[in-house]
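Hi R.,

Here's the input for the adenosine-5'-diphosphate complex you asked about:
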Amino acid sequence: MWELRDASVRFGSTTALDGVDLRVDPGEIVVILGPSGCGKSTLLRALAGLQPLDRGNVWIDGRDATREPPHTRGIGLMFQDPTLFPHRTVGDNVAFGLRMLGWDRAARADRVAEMLDLVGLPDFAARAVDTLSGGEAQRVALARSLAPGPRLLLLDEPWAALDRTLRDRLTAEIPALLRSTGTSAVHVTHDHDEAFAIADRVAVMHRGRVLRVAPPAELFADPRTATVARFLGHENIVDDGAGRRVIRRDAASVDEQGELDVRVTGCRFRGDHHDVTVASDLGTLRFHLDRGFAIGAAVRLHIDPDRVAPLADD
Ligand code: ADP
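And here is the predicted structure with adenosine-5'-diphosphate in place:
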């Protein structure tokens, strides 16, 4: 188990981490979600021992590891830029950490084959790394990070440089892959779809603080503050006099007996739904409806109260 307790890091006048508490349980995937500059990389570096804390502690398996060097923490790292060694084979790259640990040649070869199988690149061991596509290079980097058997893998926007299709594929594959090796992970992203697809729990970060940690479905249904709601992609944040609320895009249905009169200001067909923007007394709202409307149409909507959640002040 890994834990940051009241972790703070300052760079001059910038507070990159501001009293962060975060726990990662064995086998768990925690995703850090937040905009650029909110402190995500600093948090990873602090866990890994690459960034000293100005205040607070890092606990690993019940011991205070705050002053332990990176290599004793059992943590693997994977960054956006895989930086494979260019003049070596795929196999040499994957074996790199094993050689540092003193594994003999035969054991290294076995482990390399196992890791390349795991990431879907069997028979790639002899390939030169400069012949790999971007997605293949990222898989090799993942195999390299996993080869020494880290108990916790830290992934810092690992797919950010890849195209959407590849990103979606790796996003879909990573949870099963980590589970099959029993590896816990902290994965950093600014993309809420990616966070939802991967996370057991999502930690939403803003200005050096962790605002909320919860499983994806719970977080989405009840974001609690407008800042968290916006990071999760919610757009319908309203103040109806009784207080601030977030209304999910799937909360509305067309209903003659409904309670909300709206005028359609935009409508886009999206295959399995229509993405409809409306003007209402609550302001501009956006819903996924099962039919489309002409711009200017007057429509009455019913809002499912179970898909509306109250928001507290930030
Ligand atoms: P993120 O990963 O969410 O983009 P970072 O952890 O990289 O955010 O950075 C958090 C804040 O700390 C930013 O304002 C960044 O400019 C600042 N920062 C990060 N590293 C350094 C550094 N080595 N020196 C000075 N400021 C830094």
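One thing worth noting: The radius of gyration is 23 Å.

Cheers,
M.
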